[in-house]
Amino acid sequence: MIEFKHVSKVYKDVRALDDVSFTVEPGGVTGFLGPNGAGKSTALRVLVGLSRATSGSATVLGRPYGELDRPAFQVGTLLDAGAQHPGRTGREILTLGAMTLGLPRSRVDEVLRLVGLTAAEGGRRFGGYSLGMRQRLGIAHALLGEPRAVILDEPANGLDPQGIRWLRGLLRELAASGCAVLLSSHLLHEVEQVADQVVLIARGRVLARGTVAELRRDGRTLEQVFLDLTTGADRSAGLDAALSADGSAA
């Protein structure tokens, strides 16, 4: 399980996160949705120990990330698909990761197949990869250790329609295997197709959370719900009251 408990993060006079609380259960996909600058990436950085919360706590499998034993076997992360040496091939990048984890080289071939990169593509230098290929390689790297939780930041960026369909299937397979999957994105429509739970965030605050069905109970799309919440239009009536009644409101 992934859990945020009252997490706030302040940079000087800027409150990037404001009392963020939600959980990601095993066996499901939770969409963490919001516009650019909403605080999604800051929250993920706090979760994996790259940034320290001003207050509150964020844990993976019941412990802070930095206290996990062999964390790559517990948590797979993709926070920046471009954070690799441009002169190395995709296969070399994965091989170095496998060697660091003490895994056999056969695992490299397994994850390449899993993310749909051919042998020829794996042999290309990272600097020549398209954004979509970089995303696939980053996901492959995250899955090397067959983790129990997966954290992905904007993994659909750069994927074509076929790649997005593949990503949906992969996320559902991971959830079906018992993984807790946290998917951060600003692409509301795409997340609506795959998420079990949704957390809507803007300006560092959780606006609403619940299942897609709960958030769409009045017939609106997830995009319409989000726009209404963030622009202040139609906030009174059914949605806020209904979500508060069942504990799904922020």
Task: Give an account of the 3D structure.
This protein is α/β, with parallel strands linked by helices. The chain has two domains: 2-74 and 149-245, Rossmann fold, CATH 3.40.50; 85-146. 37% of the residues lie in helices and 24% in strands. It contains ten helices and nine strands. The protein has helices spanning 40-47, 90-101, 106-114, 119-122, 131-142, 161-176, 188-194, 212-215, 222-231, 236-245; strands at 2-11, 14-24, 28-33, 55-60, 75-78, 149-153, 180-185, 197-202, 205-211. The strands form two sheets. A six-stranded mixed β-sheet has the order 5-6-7-3-8-9, with helices on both faces. Strand 6 (149-153), helix 6 and strand 7 form a beta-alpha-beta unit. Helix 2 (90-101) crosses helix 3 (106-114). The chain starts with a strand and ends in a 5-residue tail after the last helix. The model is unreliable at 233-250 (pLDDT under 50).
